[in-house]
TrEMBL record, chain A:
It is found in: Cell membrane. One of its GO terms (cellular component) is plasma membrane. It is a multi-pass membrane protein. It comes from Citreimonas salinaria. This is Peptide/nickel transport system permease protein. Residues 74-263 form the ABC transmembrane type-1 domain.
UniProtKB/TrEMBL annotation, chain B:
Belongs to the binding-protein-dependent transport system permease family. Keywords: Cell membrane, Membrane, Transmembrane, Transmembrane helix, Transport. Pfam families: BPD_transp_1 (PF00528), BPD_transp_1_N (PF19300). The chain crosses the membrane at residues 7-29, 103-123, 144-164, 184-203, 238-264, 284-310. GO terms for biological process: transmembrane transport. Coiled coil: none annotated. It is found in: Cell membrane. This is Peptide/nickel transport system permease protein. GO terms for cellular component: plasma membrane. Its main location: membrane. It comes from Citreimonas salinaria. It comes from the Bacteria.
UniProtKB/TrEMBL annotation, chain C:
Residues 4-256, 281-516 form the ABC transporter domain. It is found in: Cell inner membrane. GO terms for molecular function: ATP binding; ATP hydrolysis activity. One of its GO terms (cellular component) is plasma membrane. GO terms for biological process: peptide transport; transmembrane transport. Its main location: membrane. PROSITE patterns: ABC_TRANSPORTER_1, ABC_TRANSPORTER_2. It comes from Citreimonas salinaria. The keyword Kinase does not apply. Keywords: ATP-binding, Cell membrane, Membrane, Nucleotide-binding, Transport. Belongs to the ABC transporter superfamily. It is a peripheral membrane protein. This is Peptide/nickel transport system ATP-binding protein. Transmembrane segments: none annotated.
């Protein structure tokens, strides 16, 4: 509770938290079907309508409500981001922790495998996986999870290696504490801070990657609304219907910004040096 | 073991891993290779023709043999044959890569020219209004996907100036330097925005850390000016994380900017990959992806060597 | 002639207008050729005062809030502009810092960092810079100076780096030198060399010196005048002899009497009992070797003999002090006994696994910050496979009371002070009723007054529970207070061992003598430290190398020394 209060006192933390809260509400409403209009319904009389009283953010080429489509799109993007980052965090944490603890051959094997995965630009690796699995939301989740697993592995392994040499781990060894106890209570418990920061930032990247994949037509499939697809649709109409470009663009930017701000604030709060300055 | 030597030995090892990964990934793609190669025409083949084709391409062998052959070809610079282009993959890469390289270099130049001074400036005025402005811009820059920047730039250009950059055909630098620049400046800006923001943020963070280091205090105790202390003592240390970040970003940009190339209809490496995947031209996917990973690893190797040049602790293997 | 006159100096930290004052009106004078020692514990404001004198405090978030600091009768440092300060720093006021390892820029060669002073401050260029740099290193007795100029800082030892630091500070030919705990991070024999060097250079150049330290014993041999600080105030000042012999303030008396000072065997414990009882810990021919890999396939090229044939025993109620400098193998010995490093040879006899427990040097690092007191004290119990029931909680409370900690199991480590944390570590080590405690530099990270209290606690606990202590330390004064017997470790081997009084008052091995003569003491004033650049021999040996057995000579009933060939 006091941590939440500290987060809200931090200026970028406050802005980030508000943005994410608003988006979370939109996402939940969108996924629950509680949108102002049916996101798939085509109003043939109101095609390419500018924002107004009935359609707050205007309509697209088929007369579909942009706001409703955005809400569903946000819902999907957030779902994909949360699932993929969740997967990447779990797998990366286990790999990083065990690599740091066991060292030697296992460490070498894990880290070289991660090096191989890191040798591909994120979007390219995702494209490869799409090629194997075919386009779709599940593919997006798997692809993004595979892209970010090596990053989590590294984020965990580095601090785990330095924690391993700390005296409290030495002390635990002199007591004869079990490996499981040391790994969870001494290493993992102290990795919560860097992991939280990394998860927040990874959510921002995951949103970006998801939007990029669907922009290329490899994520959510039409007529399902998705942020990337909506942006892609706006390309030939941006001069006559700029709202088709502006609103989805703004939504992606703000969502990513929200997570980035939150991540920055968390990093400040977890860093003992800045914590002192903030207190 | 010596740091430089270790890096040099690691390179072929990871490259080998990459080749296995790419090889296996391509073979996991559903559908058989002959169908993928010939598309709808494959329906016209008799089983006997199929078999002889498979034998011709070595597809009747097991994966290990296929891999070994492929690797043998790679070593001699043979990346295979693209079905859709009817050209060797290496030739396609040779045609597309100059554009991608130029775009990546241009983006990096933009990022470093903006990011490095902005980051250093912000760090020296930490927590003052000017620092805050830099940070807000960096934050927004980092949160804006390059395709959003690209679309907004096109929108502004077409609505505001009624013009668009040349699309579809690449104007080489040697042919028309100005036309080339006019064509690439917008895509480079789109790619450079987030890159510059990232450089700004990391340069600022590194500089802030370093300005509170003991050795900076030592330099001040010698009576040197703020400018000299920053330039001579702090910056060389702050460059290390900046070089890392720039290397990784540049390495990824060499893999082609898939979306930005598509938006600006630029025939770069990224477009080739995307088209190859959509067209199921697997020899091309395999070859280009491998080439991209090779570039990335090469850039990383250069970054590691740059470390050794920047930091004697790494050079002499202090742990 | 007064070089610097500080009057009612007040320094604060924090936002302008809302500063927290940490130095509350300090006054002192320093004359040319004079040495002023400022003595105090952490938080006393001694370093802040030093940093205020050349206004480096401005870059650490601090500000001079009031008072004057007149340099050379012509400029008030407290009111000077940054440009004026830049002219003073280096040229007029030189500075030497505490941590030579971090005070030099890691990416620049040593020669660059010295040379830039000659370039920028003396306008030299080209070959002249290099020649001047070589002379500067020669002057601080760095052997092979020309080669050293091309080295990076991390290629040099701490003692060498501190000499480089001194060379840099002197390169600007300042008239006032500020040394902020310049020897705290160094081994005691290296400390003696640096002190000797400072004293000699000061005689040569007639520089005024402000010497900041926490160790009042250290300044006895060097200072002309002393200023004692506590809580941001100067509580006492005066000529060295007057302050040391007739202190007028309680805090000065406390620093002189309650804090451990080395007294060459006069302050040893007399409650030792060695009446043929069975040892609680028996170590025979302990050896620890670390393979040194190299080459393409990581072949073992040689082995570092970190500990080589160490034998001792320890009876209940007894403390064996293991003393030595960095690299002597003392910590490795401690860690090997707890199996934190794998012994390569030898036997360690104890009564079961939980009979030996350890207390580490840094209490901040040895308590998991994410665990509360209850979880911290429960860990050894859980590890031993026992349930944490009411009886265990009762024991937790009893031990907390015994080490003078509040009866609160829900606190986290960051809510305690350094001394309290170390008490908590001691309580934790006692949870399983051990017979032996291995204390690895257990009080070294603590302030001197806190040190004394923790030592008292350890003595009480030893008597109460009949504990045997293996007390590993580099600090001879501390060891003198707690050890019944002492083993001197040098280059991985014990070179002298015996009753504490015998070893400290009548050292026989050349290394023990060198070590003991290097230890500062209040009794020794204005001594001439001898310069000596000998370094510890390399412990790297070819694989399979067998060190020749040591030949022991019996000096007294409980005092023996290894013959010199092993050193």
């Amino acid at each position: 509770m006091s941590f939440l209060r500290a987060l809200l006192r931090h200026s970028s933390g406050r802005i980030g938290a508000i943005i994410i809260a608003v988006f979370a509400v939109a996402a939940i409403l969108g996924l629950a079907g509680l949108t102002p209009h049916d996101p798939l319904a085509q109003d043939r009389l109101a095609r390419l309508q500018a924002p107004g009283a009935r359609y707050w953010m205007g309509t697209d080429l088929f007369g579909r409500d942009i706001l409703s489509r955005l809400m569903v799109g946000i819902g999907q993007s957030f779902a994909v981001a949360l699932l993929s980052v969740g997967l990447a965090t779990s797998v990366g944490t286990v790999l990083g922790l065990t690599a740091a603890w066991f060292g030697r051959l296992w460490d070498g094997a894990v880290m070289r495998a991660m090096d191989v995965l890191l040798s591909f630009p994120a979007i390219l690796l995702a494209l490869l996986i799409v090629a194997i699995m075919g386009p779709g939301l599940v593919t997006s989740v798997v692809a993004i999870a595979i892209v970010y697993t090596p990053i989590f592995t590294r984020v965990v392994r580095g601090p785990a290696l330095s924690l391993k040499t700390r005296s409290f781990v030495d002390a635990a060894r002199t007591f004869g504490s079990s490996r499981r106890y040391i790994l969870t209570r001494h290493l993992l418990a102290n990795l919560v801070a860097p992991l939280t920061v990394q998860i927040t930032l990874a959510l921002a990247w995951a949103l970006l990657t998801e939007a990029a994949l669907s922009f290329l037509g490899l994520g959510a499939q039409p007529p399902n609304p998705s942020l990337g697809l909506m942006l892609s649709d706006s390309r030939n109409l941006m001069e006559s219907a700029p709202w088709m470009l502006v609103f989805p663009a703004l939504v992606i930017m703000l969502a990513v910004l929200g997570f980035n701000l939150l991540g920055d604030a968390l990093r400040d709060l977890f860093d003992p040096r800045t914590r002192r300055a903030l207190a | 073991m010596n740091y430089v030597l270790r890096r040099l030995l690691m390179f072929p090892l990871v490259m080998l891993g990459v080749s296995v990964f790419v090889f296996v990934a391509i073979r996991l793609v559903p559908g058989d290779a002959i169908t993928a190669m010939l598309g709808t025409e494959s329906g016209l083949l008799t089983p006997a023709q199929r078999e002889s084709l498979a034998a011709y391409f070595g597809l009747d062998q097991n994966w290990a043999v296929q891999y070994w052959r492929w690797l043998g070809g790679l070593v001699q610079g043979d990346l295979g044959l693209s079905v859709t282009y009817g050209q060797p993959v290496s030739q396609i890469i040779a045609e597309r890569f100059p554009l991608t390289l130029e775009l990546a270099l241009l983006s990096m130049v933009i990022a470093l020219l903006i990011g490095l001074p902005a980051g250093v400036f912000a760090a020296t005025r930490a927590e003052r209004p000017s620092d805050l402005i830099v940070r807000v811009f960096a934050m927004i820059g980092q949160s804006t996907p390059n395709f959003v920047v690209a679309l907004l730039a096109i929108y502004v250009l077409s609505v505001g100036f009624g013009t668009l950059p040349t699309m579809g055909r690449f104007v080489p630098l040697t042919e028309d330097p100005l036309g080339n620049l006019a064509q690439l400046i917008l895509p480079a800006l789109a790619l450079g925005t987030a890159f510059a923001a990232a450089v700004t943020r990391i340069a600022r963070a590194a500089m802030l850390d370093i300005l509170s280091e003991d050795y900076v205090r030592t330099a001040r105790s010698k009576g040197f000016s703020q400018g000299y202390v920053i330039w001579r003592h702090a910056l060389p240390n702050a460059l290390i994380p900046v070089v890392t970040l720039s290397g990784v970003e540049f390495g990824y940009l060499l893999g082609g900017a898939v979306i930005v190339e598509q938006i600006f209809a630029l025939p770069g490496v990224g477009r080739v990959v995307l088209d190859a995947i959509l067209q199921r031209d697997y020899a091309l996917v395999q070859g280009v992806v491998l080439f991209i990973a090779f570039n990335f690893l090469l850039v990383n190797l250069l970054v590691d060597l740059a470390y050794a040049a920047l930091d004697p602790r790494i050079r002499y293997g202090a742990s | 002639m007064t070089l610097l006159s500080v009057e009612d100096l007040r320094v604060g930290f924090g936002r302008t207008g809302r500063e927290t004052e940490v130095v509350h009106g300090v006054s002192f004078d320093v004359a040319a050729g004079e040495t002023l020692a400022i003595v105090g514990e952490s938080g006393s404001g001694k370093s802040v005062t030093a940093m205020a004198v050349n206004r480096l405090i401005d870059y650490g978030g601090g500000r001079i809030l009031g008072g004057r600091a007149i340099y050379d009768g012509r400029i008030d440092v407290a009111a000077a502009t940054e440009a004026e300060m830049q002219r003073l720093r280096g040229r007029e006021i030189g500075m030497i810092f505490q941590e030579p390892m971090t005070a030099l820029n890691p990416v620049l060669k040593v020669g660059t960092q010295i040379g830039e002073i000659f370039r920028k401050q003396h306008g030299m260029s080209g070959r002249a810079v290099r020649q001047a740099s070589v002379r500067a290193l020669d002057r601080v007795r760095i052997p092979d100076a020309a080669r050293r100029l091309d080295q990076a800082p991390h290629q040099m030892s701490g003692g060498m780096l501190q000499r480089v630091m001194i060379a840099m500070a002197l390169a600007g030919e300042p008239r006032l030198l500020i040394a902020d705990e310049p020897t705290t991070a160094l081994d005691v024999t290296i400390q003696a060399q640096i002190m000797a060097l400072l004293a000699e250079l000061q005689r040569e150049t007639g520089t005024g010196l402000i010497f900041i330290t926490h160790d009042i014993g250290l300044v006895a041999g060097l200072a002309d005048r002393v200023l004692v600080m506590q809580g941001g105030k100067a509580v006492e000042s005066g000529p060295i002899d007057r302050v040391l012999d007739r202190p007028s303030h309680d805090y000065t008396r406390h620093l002189l009497n309650a804090v451990p000072h080395f007294r060459a065997g006069q302050a040893v414990r007399t409650d030792g009992v060695r009446d043929g009882r069975a040892p609680a810990l028996d170590v025979r021919d302990l050896a620890v070797r670390f393979p040194v890999g190299g080459g393409f396939l990581r072949r073992t090229r040689g082995e570092v003999h970190a500990v080589d044939g160490v034998s001792f025993d320890l009876v209940p109620g007894e403390t064996l002090g293991i003393v030595g400098e960095s690299g002597s193998g003392k910590s490795t010995t401690a860690r090997a006994i707890l199996n934190l490093v794998q012994p390569s040879a030898g036997a360690i006899d104890t009564e079961g696994r939980t009979a030996v427990q350890m207390v580490f040097q840094n209490p901040n690092a040895s308590l998991n910050p994410r665990m509360d007191v209850r979880a911290l004290l429960a860990e050894p119990v859980i590890a031993a496979g026992q349930r944490v029931d009411d009886a265990v909680v009762g024991r937790m409370r009893a031990l907390l009371a015994r080490v003078d900690l509040p009866d609160d199991l829900d606190r986290f480590p960051h809510e305690f002070s350094g001394g309290q944390r170390q008490r908590l570590c001691i309580a934790r080590a006692l949870m399983l009723n051990p017979r032996v405690l291995v204390l690895d530099e257990a009080v070294s990270a603590l302030d001197v007054s806190v040190q004394a209290k923790v030592l008292d606690l350890l003595v009480d606990l030893q008597r109460e529970f009949g504990l045997a202590y293996l007390f590993v330390s580099h600090d001879m004064a501390v060891v003198e207070r707690i050890a019944h017997r002492i083993a001197v470790l040098y280059a991985g081997r014990i070179v002298e061992m015996g009753a504490a009084r015998a070893v400290l008052s009548d050292p026989r091995h050349p290394y023990t003598r060198k070590l003991i003569s290097a230890v500062p003491s209040i009794e020794r004033r204005r001594i001439d430290y001898a310069l000596d650049t000998e370094e510890v021999p390399s412990l790297l040996r070819p694989v399979g190398f067998q060190t020749p057995a040591q030949v022991w000579r019996q000096i007294g009933p409980d005092h023996r020394v290894a013959s010199e060939q092993t050193a």
